[in-house]
Structure formats: structure tokens, C-alpha cells
């Protein structure tokens, strides 16, 4: 299935796309503070591209549970120099992780072609027009509440059904506003207003989200539910659990994986994708032998 992101046409599936996380924030839950300078961020972006990342997702505002929002000006100061330099010096596919239309518009002007909006265009009334007018690809993600409050006792009668229904409605709103359906990717929002049980159920039923007919993005890397299930409190120690979740998500139909550990995720994704779709085996073994 193709995902049209501005002038870039991405092929999402049968080989999954790997989206490398680049947080230029002081407070992100696992890499906060590591890539504050534009130089450090650029080095990291280039490293992830060399490791096989298909997309670099640049964020300037943490959405971890309890995180405080930041001003558009602060967010722009963090992400725009990185996006501009990365776009100028490479052919990287760049995504901006923001809920603010002003940040998204500037990011696209400087070279991003994907707007990754964890509010699915509900946080800023100007976002829908920004996505439509720029022609960027857009990730519509499900979240219950906002990062400050989303983990306060989230409840669902049928988490997969409710998330799928909500995403279908957001996609309908997007297309009614003139956004091309081919520009849309859908994300169940693992960890955003969900308990461990909700996250696990959503991952095991991603096929339900995939049945909405658009590429499915899953962001599970190093998240709390992995720590809870595996007894690893330190986010940096959750690689093995993250890879297990990634493989399961691919088997259930995820075709874009948002990850911190690119090299390891590329390896796991290739194996999981071949098991899901044996038609890939010839191409994969030919390239590697
Ligand atoms: N998760 C995070 C941030 N952005 N975007 C999408 N589409 N899906 C996700 O699951 C997702 C996301 C949270 O992870 P991270 O960026 O590592 O941390 P923080 O929000 O603290 O910066």
C-alpha cells in the first residue's frame, strides 16, 4: 500500500518501514536531553539512516505521561534547525512530531514531508488545513485525554473497537476536509491513555485497525508497558521486549514501526515480515547473500 507524503511516495508493506525517533527535548522518557544541540541531533539522525531507518521523526515536545506542554516558539527552536540541516544535507524522509499547525507548517517548508500528530488533528484547529494545504503525509494517532492526564484510570468497554471507530471517524473528517486518503496513516497510540492490558489487546488486534485500509503505525519502543511486563524499570534496558512487541505488531499488520533502536529493529522487522509474508524471502535473502 502506498503512503503519499508530499512528493514522496512511500511503500508501506510488505516490507515494514522503520521510523527512527529523534527527540530534541530535555524531558522525553527515554532519550530526553541527549540530542539537545542541533549538531548532536544531526549526528544521531545520520546514524539512524545508516542503520536503515526509512523515516526520521523529529520531535520537540515530550508526550510522555505527565509531560507539560511547551510553546510553539520553543518547539520550533528545537526542531526546525535539525529538520532544515537534515533536509539540506541528505535525501532523508523527515517527519515532524507535533500537534501545532504553526510548527508543522514551518517544518514542511524546511523539508519535512510527514506530520505526525498524536492528537489526530484535534489539538489545533488549524492543523487540518495545514495538512491539506501542504500535501504532507499525516499520522492520525488515537489518544484518550492529553499527556498530563491520559494515564488517570483509562477505561474502555472494547478498546480495539473504540480505537478503530475513533480512527475511522478522524480519517473521515480528514478526507471530508480535502486531505487525500492516500496521505493518511493510522496509529492506535500505544501508551496514550491505555493500561498494560489495553496496550496488549490493541497490539494483538492491530489487524482490526489495518482493516480500515490505511498503513498502520505502531510506536511501542521502550514504553512503560514493556517495562511492566518484563520487570525492567529502566527504559534503556527494554530493547528485547521492544523487539518482541515489534515482531508481534508486524504479524498483526503494522507496516510502520516507530523505534529508538534502529539497527536491531530493522533486523527484527525483516525476520517478522518474512514470516508474515514468505513472498519476501527471495528478495531478502538475495540482498543479504
Ligand atoms: N509515541 C511517542 C511520541 N510520538 N507518535 C506516534 N505516531 N506514535 C507513538 O506511539 C508515539 C508518537 C512517545 O515516545 P517518545 O517520543 O520516545 O517519548 P516522548 O513523548 O517522551 O518524547
Please report the number of helical segments.
11
Q: Determine the N-to-C terminus distance.
A: 27 Å
How are the strands of the largest sheet arranged?
A: 8-7-6-5-4-3-10-9
User: What is the share of helical residues?
Assistant: 40-55%
Number of strands: 10
The profile of the biggest β sheet is: 8 strands, parallel
Query: Taking all residues together, what is the mean pLDDT?
Result: 96
Query: In percent terms, what proportion of residues is strand?
Result: 15-25%
User: H/E element string?
Assistant: EEEHEHEHEHEHEHHEHHEHH
Poorly predicted runs of 5 or more residues: none
Structural class: alpha/beta
Bound molecules: 6-hydroxymethylpterin-diphosphate
Amino acid at each position: 500500500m502506498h503512503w503519499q507524503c508530499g512528493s514522496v511516495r512511500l511503500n508501506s508493506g510488505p516490507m515494514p518501514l522503520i521510523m527512527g525517533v529523534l527527540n530534541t527535548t530535555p524531558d522525553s522518557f527515554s532519550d530526553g536531553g541527549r540530542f539537545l544541540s542541533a549538531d548532536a541531533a544531526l549526528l544521531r539522525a545520520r546514524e539512524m539512516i545508516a542503520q536503515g531507518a526509512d523515516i526520521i521523526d523529529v520531535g520537540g515536545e515530550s508526550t510522555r505521561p505527565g509531560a507539560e506542554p511547551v510553546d510553539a516558539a520553543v518547539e520550533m527552536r528545537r526542531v526546525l534547525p535539525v529538520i532544515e540541516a537534515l533536509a539540506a544535507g541528505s535525501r532523508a524522509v523527515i517527519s515532524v512530531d507535533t500537534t501545532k499547525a504553526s510548527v508543522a507548517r514551518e517544518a514542511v517548508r524546511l523539508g519535512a514531508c510527514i506530520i505526525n500528530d498524536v492528537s489526530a488533528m484535534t489539538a489545533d484547529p488549524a492543523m487540518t488545513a495545514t495538512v491539506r494545504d501542504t500535501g504532507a503525509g499525516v499520522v492520525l494517532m488515537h489518544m484518550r485525554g492529553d499527556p498530563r492526564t491520559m494515564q488517570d484510570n483509562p477505561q474502555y468497554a472494547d478498546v480495539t473497537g473504540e480505537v478503530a471507530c475513533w480512527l475511522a471517524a478522524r480519517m473521515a473528517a480528514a478526507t471530508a476536509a480535502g486531505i487525500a486518503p492516500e496521505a493518511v496513516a493510522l496509529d492506535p497510540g500505544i501508551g496514550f491513555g491505555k493500561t498494560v492490558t489495553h496496550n496488549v489487546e490493541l497490539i494483538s488486534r492491530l489487524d482490526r485497525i489495518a482493516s480500515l485500509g490505511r498503513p498502520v503505525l505502531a510506536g511501542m519502543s521502550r514504553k512503560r508497558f514493556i517495562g511492566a511486563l518484563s520487570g525492567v524499570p529502566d527504559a534503556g534496558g527494554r530493547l528485547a521486549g521492544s523487539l518482541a512487541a515489534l515482531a508481534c505488531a508486524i504479524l498483526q499488520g503494522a507496516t510502520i514501526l516507530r523505534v529508538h533502536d534502529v539497527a536491531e529493529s530493522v533486523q527484527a522487522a525483516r525476520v517478522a515480515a518474512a514470516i508474515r509474508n514468505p513472498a519476501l524471502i527471495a528478495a531478502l535473502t538475495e540482498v543479504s547473500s
